[in-house]
Amino acid sequence: MENVNHKTKKKLIMIILLVVAGIVFFVSTPIRYRMKIKELKEERPEFAFFPDSIPQGVSHVKWFQLPSLMQGEGHRELSFIADDEYIQSLYDTHAYNKFIETYDRENGRQYQWIKGDNVYRYYPYDNPYVVDKIMGYTASGWVNKEGEEVDPIHTPSGQDVSDYADVDVIITYEYPSDDIDYYDNGGIYIDHKTNLVYFWLEN
Questions:
Q1: Nearest to 73, CA basis, from 150, 181, 180
Q2: Quick count: other Cβ atoms within 10 Å of Cβ 199?
Q3: Cα–Cα distance between 18 and 58 in angstroms, integer?
Q4: Whose CA is closest to 154, among 96, 100, 94, 75?
């Protein structure tokens, strides 16, 4: 009898430990994110478009950080499933409002907000986006309404061309450079079919 009670106690302790571990894991991502993004925003203004904290009511939250190593570019990613109201707020805040970073030896790093079409859709190469029928200009890949293409765009893992039909990408940050190795950008990938919101920034 005493042996049965001992086994029951061990099982109960294991269940409690698993529940506590699950709570800590669930709670720690929002806490870790909030602390890290505050630090990043203080050091690097280009993180301005990332939310200050993980929004209430979202699900499937993922926060990923890959630091720059030697010549390799690092990047930060935050993704979650949100409601339509939150998604609309992203358009209201970030569409046609892009953050540009430049650098020169005399002035160092400079930042400015510019107005312009920064909302991109994907147009497959076998179905080009016709910008101007008179000029005969066509574009494919990630293209805005003005016919400007943007590359590269980070997309969530597991996504491919067939998943882009209902996706908008709002480019919110650019570090333009003549050297393709130093061209960085960041933005918000919004999948209207699944309500997936994916923030990324190369750094």
A1: 181
A2: 23
A3: 24
A4: 75
DSSP string, the chain: -HHHHHHHHHHHHHHHHHHHHHHHHHHHHHHHHHHHHHHHHHH-GGGGGS-SSPPTT-EEEEEEEE--BTTBPPEEEEEEE--HHHHHHHHHHHTT-EEEEEEETTTEEEEEEE-S--EEEEE-TTSPEEEETTTTEEE-EEE-TTS-B-------TT--GGG-TTEEEEEEEEE--SSGGG-EEEEEEEETTTTEEEEEEE-
CA distance linking residue 187 with residue 99, whole number of Å: 10
Q: What is the pLDDT along the chain (203 residues), one digit of tens a residue?
A: 555 566 677 677 777 666 555 554 445 678 889 989 999 989 888 888 999 999 999 999 999 887 655 555 667 999 999 999 999 999 999 999 887 777 676 776 777 778 889 999 998 877 777 766 666 667 778 998 888 888 778 889 888 888 998 999 999 888 766 555 566 789 999 999 999 999 999 87
d(CA 180, CA 12): 58
In tens, the pLDDT along 48-62 reads 899 999 999 999 999
Joined together, the tokens standing for residue 93 give 């805040």
- Residue among 123, 105, 102 at smallest CA distance from 114: 102
